[in-house]
Amino acid sequence: MQCAETAGLETLGAASDTHSCIQALRDPEHQARFEHWLCEVNSSDGISLLTALAHMATPTQHSDPAFITTITLLIYQVSYHPLSAVENRLACVILEGLNWGYTQDGSLALSSSLHSEVALLVAEAYQKYLTDKPYSGLISEGIKQVSYLASVLRLGVSPEASFSQWAWQLLLRLKLHGNAQNPKAAWSVPALTSNPPPELTHSPSMHSVIRAVKAGIPIGCYLSIAMTQVGHSLEHFCTDGVGLLKSLIQSRHLRAAVHLLDNILPPTYPLSFYLLNNSQFVSCIQLFLQYDSVCPQGVTQQVTHRVAPLLHWNHLWRQCPAAEQCHSESRGGEFTAQSCWCCSSAGVLGWDFDSAEPVEECVQKLLYQQHKNALGYHGDRGLLSSLVGWIAGNATPSFIEGQSLSAEVWFAWLVLNMEGVFEDDSQLRRCVENELLSDPSISPEQALKKAQQKLKLPVAPSLQRLQVYRWASQALATPPDHPLIPLVWQKFLQFYLRQPGPEYGLAAGGCIGRRFFQASSQTNLLRDLRQRIQEVSDFHHAASQALRVPPPHTPSSDSQGDESPDNPRPPYLTSPQLHTELVRLFGVFAVWLDDETLQKQEVYLPSLPPEYEAHRLAQIMQRQQELWLEYVDQERLQYDEREVLSLWEKVQSEPTFLQAQNPGFTDYTSLSNARERILSNLQKHPVPHPPPELQKQKAPVAEVPSSCLTDSKAAAELVQQDLTILQDQARIAVAREAQQVAMEQELLESLPLLYKNQPEQVTMTLECKGKGGQPCQGPANITVTCERVQRQEAVQTQITSLRRDIKKLQADSMAPPPQSLAQAAVHTENFITSLVNMYKAQKSPAVHHVGVSAFYQVVSYVCEDTLRHPPTRQYLSSCVEILGQVFIQGNAEECGRVLKTILEQRRLCPLISPFFTPNAAPNQLVFLYQDVVTSLHLDTADVIFMLLTKFDLSHWLNDAHPVFSERTRLLELVHGALCVCGRDPEPELLTPFHLFTKHWTWLLRHHFPDHYSDCLRLLMTSSSNQLLSPECWKVTLRVLGCLPPSRQTKSKAEQALSTTDVSGRAAGPPASTYRSPISLSPQQVDETVTWLSDYFLRSRLSKPDLRSFGLYSAWTPYITEVVCFWEHLIGCLISVQLNSCAREPVGSSKTMKALQDLHSKIVKLFKPWIFPLDTEDGGNLKCYPWLETDASTAGCPGWPVHSTHRHAASQIQRSSASRPESLPWRHLHPDTQLMEQLFNVERGSPKSCFLFLGEVLCEVNWVSVLSDFLQTPPTSTSYPTLPDTQKESHTMLVYLLYMLVFLAKEEQLLNKQDSPLLSLLVQSTSLPWHQLDLSSYQGILGYVSTHYPPSVLLTADSSPQLLLKSLRSAAGLHPRPNEVPHREETLKAAAYVCWCVQSLVTLEQGGSISLSSLEAQLETLLEGVVTFNPPETGLEQRHMAFCGLFSDTLALLNGVGVSTGEALAAHVITWLDRKGRGFPILPLLTACSRCLASVRHMTRIMEACITAYFNHADEESVGWGPVLASLQVPELTVDDFLSESQSGGSFLTLYAFILQRLNTEYTAANERRTLALINTWTTQVFPSGPGDEAKLFLWWHKALNLSAEQLQPQSGQTEVSGVVMGLLRLQTRLLQLGEERLNSGLLGAIGLGKRSPVSNRFRVVVRSLAAFLSVQVQSETELRLQPASDLQLSAKAQQTLGMLEAMPSNKQYAELEDSVNKAVQFIRYPGHCLRDGPRLLALLANLLYPELRYLHIIR
Questions:
Q1: According to the model, what pLDDT value does residue 1124 have?
Q2: CB-based contact 1423:1373 (threshold 8 Å)
Q3: What is the pLDDT of residues 1499-1553, one digit of tens each?
Q4: Is the model's pTM score more than 0.85?
Q5: CA separation for the pair 1221, 717 (Å, rounded)
Q6: Residue 113, SS3?
Q7: Which end of the chain is less enclosed by CB atoms within 10 A, N or C?
Q8: Contact (Cβ atoms closer than 8 angstroms) between residue 944 and residue 916
Q9: Which of 645, 438, 630 lies closest to 559, judged by CA?
Q10: Quick check: helix, strand or coil at residue 784?
């Protein structure tokens, strides 16, 4: 910059190297000029320039101290700006960023004079900006204490506070003291003789410092001690410096005080007694300690804890090991730095310290003395408050708060050992052990009190302060990795496993330790100790598995300070061998602690197993004081010592604001770290590399050898070498693409799995507001299971890995391609260019051969990978295009090879098809076309289309003039291709299909009619098999003029074809889009008609299917085109004949002949299509010309003529436009032959014929037809033989019902307006269908079951319902009161019911009917049976007829499901209950046992039948006789029948069974069995309600009668005893039945059961009967079989009778008082005995149940 202003250009450019520039800058003249120019620049330029120069001043690989000094001293030509200005801040940043530390050799990086000058400048600026400004509050306190505290608390609210903080930080970094400037000589006295420090009062440079000292500014006190003789001479420091130091401490600049002491004290350690005897210095130390332990005003404890730990006093203590080491090396005296600080601490605390003893012993003695003072041995307990600061409860004061210390284990070790010495000296432990051994029942606390009394101790330690508890607690608290943990456990075990017996003159016994752990809290402590041993063992076992990598070198004491942020000290790992030994040692401890034998008795140690380690156990029991130092981690101790030294050195060398951040993790992207980023970049700038050597340039692409242009082998090697590189690159790119797609797909599949809902239990608290003024007792804890989204860590790891892999793959894909790729591409391009140029210059065969070979070789490298890679695809396409245009296109010899290559590799078609020119080889065109056609299928449609566009057939036909055979062969190939496309070409084949049709028309037009016959033959042959599309017909007919030309929009394929046609012509005008049609000559028309007639007739006769079903099914797709073609041909024939007869008169022979000739030709043409043919077997049956499905096609109005042949009359009539159904068919009188024809038509004719005939027959007046049969039949019940006329009428009636069944399912007839079928169905309901015979009716039902769905029963349509009504009428299930039933009526009705039941079962099993519908259908069947009038006249025959019908009806319950069957049975019971009178119930009772498969259904319906029989009987005196005759109990399931009857409440059924059983055998044994059966049933049943309760009276009436019969004088004792016992049981059961509440269950046993369901009158009956039995049967031996004059009542009888008499007093029995009184009167009458029991029951039945008819039998 300077030279640019003053020097010339030649001088400016003369400097050729860096060294000359550096030498020029060091010139004093240049330095002066530089300072001058720097002072003249403006503010903004100065800021920029200073920033750049500051970066230059930052040490990189070369440093220039003079340059740095210049920059530093010139800073305050800019810093005169205010503190808030950018210039001032820039100056602070630059000074802060300079290296004020040491170099690697220990010397200062910058000169000491620069340190001093900067310090004085800072002092001047400090006084300028801060001296006269008042501060108060939090900012003032922050500045007074430490500068970095303000940084932490972010107190930069003002520029002054920020500047104060910066000034103190910078001053503490400056090396101002001589010992700081030369740290290696800091321990020698004197240290600065060569460069003495200035005097404070005599040196002019210290003017600003003196002024600051006088003003009491702390920064002046600091600089006066650090820079002048005050801090470098012990004498000056003692006289002047101590006061300045105290002022600095009082200002709370404690860190500055530590820095000063660090520099001042090392040389004075040998003379430290001067300082220790200086009371002012000791007061400074005391003030320092006081300020260091007290929070500053306005700063809370929490904030102080956030600040980096203030190392002030701790730093000085921690430097003692280093001071000790340096002192011993330099002076060799006995007085050490440790001793100095111990004396200093003792002086501060007022202790007496003997410096002649070892330091540890002195400290222990001091602690011992203070411990005794705390216990009151010297009457002074106030010191404890100043030392420890607390006294907790009854615990003895101690230096350790609580029972143990987990953080300060070393201090705890020292204190506990000291307390142990106190226990031994005071004889306390020995006395306590003696007390415990003397009295086994005494507790440790009592022993301690006795020991205190014996020893007369003023204050004894509390129980928890005893050594055994102290060491136990410390063992629990000591971390498992602490070096002292084995020694702590050793100390504890010495107390726990001690055997003090022989010491006190007692017998040797067990260990005494267990005596100290008897209480619950002490037992828990012992349990925790055992657990702690296991935890420590586990820790060391896990630590022993860790790998310990040895450091590369063992650092010496001189290299301890080599640690740097870039090379942090590695974490320490203990040797695995030591961990293993500790695992074994603590395993031994666990064995000792778990063995209770050691505590109970003396153990012979040599006999113990090896795991006890008896020798160590002996040491423990004998309390040998030798410590097991082999288990102490000595390396860890050395490591900790080095860590302490390293920490202090780090504090000395690095500023505070740099300690708080780790440079290894600086966020260089942050705007606030711009300076660090710039400095880091400057420090990491690499050394510039020398310029590269000049090398000979090599051509990037090799030259193409000339031999490759004529030698195909050499050319192939060249192309192969280059294209292989391109192909490999394409494969790599495609593989990367596929890999990325796969990974992204996997990523997409993994993303939905990242989060998943998983069940989780959440405990929630619910609080209430209390109740009744009482507060809530506490919130309720409710555990709720919910699903919470949780991230799947395994999936997250997978997604992270995938994204990392995708990013790496993308980076690889975006990397530039290799140089070889470009070389190969250019090399191949050069080869092709040279080859083309040489061939164009001279068409040499050799060059042409090389070009053709190169073309196919390049094509061979086109693969899937190269096609997917755009660059490679484009490059290969260009190469193929150039070679193809020059060497392949238009080359007849290469057409076949190019086509073969395309067909073998279809993907090459778009690439090389432009060079396929088949017209260039006209002799090979047909063969090439054949190859293309034979390759046609769906997958190759696009390729075939592209190849077909290369064939210009029009040009080939007109220019090459191919022979007829070649054209015929080509026509057959086009026809084969059209057949391959099929009748309905797939969308993929449409484009080649249109090209084929165009080729077809070209060949047909060329030299017409050369190929007309071939085209017609091929067209007809393929169409008969439906191989061609109708479009082929259309294009052919357009050529022949049968159809107008297509005016529709061309498809893309046709447009492409037209374009190809036009562009493919070498010369001539463009082809017209429309060409005139070809006109057939009359001869050609005549020959065509004749050939077509013969062809279709042969086709009809050649195949059986076509003979039987006609040609329409085979020619359906082409009917429209065939009609159009025939219309054209017939029109041409008519035109020819019309022209020939135009001038002939009407009716002339020529005209008639012409008409006959025309008619014969037309009839011959239509004959195969519309005439029926005879069958092959020669029968009477005809083969109709079309199927019913082809009727619409056959009746197409486009047929040009109508035939009148008699065999085709019906079909021609149906095909015409007339309406045959409009004829007056109502006058038709059909006979049986016509009806038989209807049957034949229904079975084998087309359905249309059947429908037509059926519609005609529906118009017939059937009432008139059946008039003879509808006459009133004779009243005789006999059935005489019908005459022939009546037989024919009966047959007509059967045919009519058949016809209705046939037609009722045809919707086409039913849906017509005013349908005659529907009218006939309505009329038919009144016809006498009941006269049908059984066989005919069964046949009709069989047709209905096979042709009608079962759901016909459920439909609501009128036609099915009318048909069903007729069927029911024919079966006799429709009421006809005035008609005599048919003799087969019952069988027909059974057939109809069975069909209905089977249909309903089918519907139910298929789930097609609802339960309500099924119940309705069942009820309909039952109602039909009820109204049925059987033809039988006898009662038994009529009974069995009804029974059979009911059996068929109830069979429905057997076929349905279980639940449905239950519902249907319940419905039958309900129907029976509501049915009423006049109902044949007894046949239904008989049917139940015959047809029902379920015993449950059987018993319940039987019970309902019997109940209905009695309830709805016509006569009052109905009896049980008909019931017994109708009831049939199934013999195979009697037991199940009786069991179901009991459980289902079928009591009447069981009574009928009893009567039947008694009627079958009249013996006493049978009566006894029946009586026992009744008693058993009575104890097992309970009536469900009032409806069933009276049925039991029948049982008891029969039981009383049978009992009376059995108690005859001639009866044996055994029989009598059984009867009596039965009566007693009956009495007991009657009392139970008469209870108000049920006695079943637990509640019933205590009288709280449910209310009994029986009525009050039933209770009166049973209680009365029970009272009667209690009176007549007083015991097992006392019976009243005869009446007597008096009545002796037992206590039980009196009680029972009393209960009966008391019943009317209850209001619910008040209305029954008369009945109760009559019953009591009957019971108390002495003339009544046991035999009168049935009379009592009859009396009660008459009084209480007069309405029940089934009780008439007992009345």
A1: 93
A2: no
A3: 999 999 999 888 877 666 678 988 988 998 988 889 999 999 999 999 999 999 9
A4: no
A5: 91
A6: helix
A7: N
A8: no
A9: 645
A10: strand
